Amino acid sequence: MIKLVYCIHRHPDIGRDAFHKYWLEEHGPKVKSVAEAIGAIRYVQSHKCFDALNETFQKGRGLADAYDGITEVWFETIEHMQAASATAPGIEAGRFLVEDESRFIDFSRSCVFMTEEHEIF
What we know:
Elements: E1 2-8, H1 16-33, H2 35-38, E2 40-47, H3 51-61, E3 69-75, H4 78-85, H5 88-101, E4 111-115
C-alpha cells in the first residue's frame, strides 16, 4: 500500500478548537463520502495535542512550529489511486475536497506528499 500524508496548518483566523471540530465533524465525513471515487481505503486524522510537550521537543531540537495535524490516506497502489482519480467522479471528488479544505487549511504553510511505509517494529 501507499499513503498520502498531508501536514496541515490551520487558517490563522480559525481557532484551534474550531479547526479540529470542523476537520473531524465536517471534513472527515466528506472524505468518507468520496472515498470510493478517489480510491482511498483508509483515512486517519491526527490532531495536535500536548502543547507543552511539543514545545519542549521543538526548543530542544531547534525545530519549526508543529503542524496542527496530519491526515493520512491509504491506497492499494499508485496505479489504483491514479485510475480512480482520473474518472469523472474522482475528478469531481478531488475538486470537492480541495474546495472544502480551503475553508480551514492554510495551504501556503501546509504540505502534502506520497509515502511508502517501511515497518521497523
